[in-house]
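Give me the 3D structure for Ig-like domain-containing protein.
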Amino acid sequence: MASPGWAVALMLFQLFHSGTSYPVFTSTPSLPPEFALPFPNVSLVASPITPGESTQSVLCPLKISPSTVVVRFGDPVKANCSIQRMGYFGIGWEVPLNRPNFTSQGFLIWSVEKMTDWTIKPVCFALSEQGGQCYSKLTLIVYKPPDRVSITFLNHSESPFEGDRYTLQCHVTEVAPAENVLVTFYSGEKMLAQMHSNTSSEKKPVTQSFTLNIVSSKEDTEAQYWCEAKLELGPEGPQHLPVMASQRLFAPQLSCPVKLKVTEGERFPCEVTGNPQPSVTWFRNGQIVAPPSHLNKKDAGNYTIQAKGLFSKNFTVEVKILPARGTANSCCGHFLLLVLLTQMITHV
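Predicted structure for Ig-like domain-containing protein (348 residues):
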């Protein structure tokens, strides 16, 4: 039961309080829980928030602006609570574990310079001259973008057959709130699927994995797989939050044509790329060889490249060596000089 002293104290506060309201930071010691209902014989009435509430709830004339606040963890936040109906001698803000703030003015701003509480639920209340109170809750969403997004393959084969099943896993690290996370899977630029988190009640940052089952096809060995995660915070939240994407997974790829013409002395331009980085083995005439760094005539021929990465792939490259440009010019120059000397000797 609450003591009548609290009602008296609030009325005295009204008499001696002057000036306009000001931003407050609720960081003072907490009051006894009886303060939440200073008039024990009167029911607490909620301000209208959602459709379907009782007729009694519309009796609370409080207005919070904005009604929903979306704030990034560590950023400042504020909201204004006001009342326009006569018959109420004051309004205040109450935050768990902190002393309620009260004013006899028609509005009161609650503000925090740095939001570091994930589960805070501010409540604005009004005290009636007839001995009662009503309240309205501020909808506050504290968010944090993910630290990292990554993608991996589970239970897949390096040599998939058409119709095989395997699993993509998108890993989202330290994001909040979980219920607002949307993950999208892609194959190249084609969207494969979208899914939301199944952790709807957790407000603090969480790390979650999202999985998608895939049936392999002939095109899989050429596709790039990746995922992205973003927060959907509604019209009240920031509309251009950056979307965090994973790296792209792709099978081994050859960086040169399968029929290659290279001038003698030039660098060998063939490389194998992939993610994860593939292990590569070169063969020539059935023997393991090291890929040549700078080519000469003896390096001409057919090479077989065996690459093991996201999937296993084999490549065959036919290498043809062209004579160096300087060599052809030198031969022509020597021939012309010989012709000139022959003519000079003939005319002597």
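The chain has three domains: 5-141, 148-247, 252-325. Let me know if you want a second pass.
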